[in-house]
C-alpha cells in the first residue's frame, strides 16, 4: 500500500510540475570542472548594463595590444571608422589573409578603441592583420546604419583583395551583424567571405527562445530581457518588426552561407539563438561547428584574455579557419 501511495504522490507531483509557469527558486552551484578564471567570472554579481564600460574595455584592449606587440591604427574606409590591428611579426602562413572583426556590445556599446578587444585577441592568435569595423551605433544610428557601414567597407576591401582570403569574426551583436551582412550580400550579389566565426550571435532578438526565458537572471552579463536586451531590440528595430532578417538574421535563408564556427555557454541567454542558428546552417548543408562551454554566460570567453576557455575557443577558430583560408 505504501508503494502504491508513493507512486500516486509521484504522479501528482509530475502533473503539478507540468502545469507550473514558474520554476521554484534554486541555488546555482559552480561546476567543479571549469577553470579558476571562469569560476571568478561566473561567480561575479550580475553586470550593471545601465552604466558604460567603454573606457575599461578600451584600456584592456590597448594594454593587451602592447603586451602582444600589436599595433592599433585608426583609419577611415569610405567614411566608416575602422582600426587596423596588426602584429609586429606576421605569420607567414597568414601574410595574405585578412580577418574583418565586427565587435559586439548590443549595438550601443564599445565604440572607438574599445571595439578592438576581440580583434586584438584574434590578431595575436592568428598572427595576421585584423580590420576592426567601428560601425555606427545606437542611440543615434539604429538599423540599418551599422549594417550599411559593414557593407560599404566590404565593397571597398574586395575591390583589391580576393574574398577567398578574407574571414569575418564577431561576437553577440557583431556576429548577428555578420549574419545580416551575408543576407545582404546575397541580395546584392556580392562576393562573400571564405569563413565566419559567430560568437553567441544575437540572431533572434525576440523573446521567443527557450534560453532567453530559462537563463534570464542566470546569465550575469545580459541578465534580463525586459531590462536590457528587449529595450535594445526595440531601439535597434526602430519601429520595424524585430524578426526582420536584418535585425534578427536567424529568420533568413541560410543556403550558401560561408562555413561557420559558433560558440556559446550553458548560462547564455543567447544559447538558443546560437543553437538554432547552428541547426539551421546544418540543415542547409553548410559546414558548421558549435562549441558550448560549461556554465559560461554571454560571451564570457572575452571576459579576460587569460580565461583558458577563451584561449581554447580561439584555437578551435584557427583550426576551423585553416580549412577554408588560402
TrEMBL record:
This is Alpha/beta hydrolase fold domain-containing protein. Belongs to the 'GDXG' lipolytic enzyme family. It comes from the Bacteria. Transmembrane segments: none annotated. SUPFAM superfamilies: alpha/beta-Hydrolases (SSF53474). GO terms for molecular function: triacylglycerol lipase activity. It comes from Francisella noatunensis. Residues 101-300 form the Alpha/beta hydrolase fold-3 domain. Keywords: Hydrolase.
Amino acid at each position: 500500500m505504501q508503494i502504491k501511495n508513493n507512486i500516486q504522490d509521484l504522479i501528482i507531483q509530475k502533473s503539478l510540475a507540468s502545469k507550473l509557469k514558474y520554476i521554484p527558486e534554486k541555488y546555482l552551484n559552480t561546476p567543479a570542472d571549469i577553470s579558476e578564471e571562469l569560476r571568478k567570472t561566473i561567480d561575479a554579481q550580475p553586470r550593471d548594463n545601465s552604466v558604460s564600460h567603454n573606457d575599461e574595455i578600451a584600456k584592456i584592449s590597448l594594454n593587451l595590444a602592447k603586451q602582444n606587440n600589436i599595433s592599433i591604427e585608426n583609419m577611415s574606409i569610405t567614411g566608416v571608422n575602422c582600426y587596423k590591428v596588426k602584429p609586429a611579426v606576421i605569420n607567414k602562413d597568414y601574410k595574405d589573409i585578412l580577418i574583418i572583426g565586427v565587435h559586439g556590445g548590443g549595438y550601443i556599446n564599445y565604440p572607438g578603441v574599445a571595439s578592438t578587444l576581440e580583434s586584438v585577441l584574434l590578431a595575436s592568435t592568428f598572427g595576421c592583420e585584423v580590420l576592426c569595423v567601428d560601425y555606427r551605433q545606437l542611440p543615434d544610428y539604429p538599423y540599418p546604419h551599422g549594417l550599411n557601414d559593414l557593407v560599404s567597407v566590404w565593397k571597398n576591401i574586395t575591390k583589391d583583395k580576393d574574398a577567398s582570403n578574407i574571414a569575418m569574426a564577431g561576437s553577440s551583436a557583431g556576429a548577428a551583424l555578420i549574419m545580416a551582412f551575408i543576407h545582404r550580400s546575397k541580395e546584392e550579389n556580392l562576393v562573400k567571405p571564405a569563413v565566419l566565426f559567430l560568437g553567441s550571435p544575437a540572431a533572434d532578438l525576440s523573446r521567443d527562445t527557450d534560453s532567453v526565458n530559462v537563463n534570464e537572471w542566470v546569465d550575469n552579463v545580459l541578465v534580463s530581457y525586459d531590462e536590457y536586451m528587449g529595450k535594445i531590440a526595440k531601439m535597434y528595430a526602430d519601429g520595424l518588426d524585430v524578426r526582420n532578417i536584418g535585425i534578427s538574421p536567424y529568420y533568413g535563408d541560410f543556403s550558401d552561407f560561408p562555413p561557420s564556427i559558433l560558440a556559446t555557454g550553458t548560462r547564455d541567454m543567447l544559447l538558443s539563438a546560437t543553437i538554432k542558428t547552428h541547426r539551421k546552417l546544418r540543415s542547409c548543408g553548410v559546414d558548421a561547428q558549435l562549441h558550448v562551454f560549461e556554465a559560461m554566460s554571454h560571451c564570457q570567453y572575452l571576459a579576460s584574455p587569460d580565461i583558458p576557455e577563451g584561449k581554447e575557443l580561439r584555437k578551435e577558430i584557427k583550426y576551423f579557419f585553416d580549412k577554408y583560408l588560402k
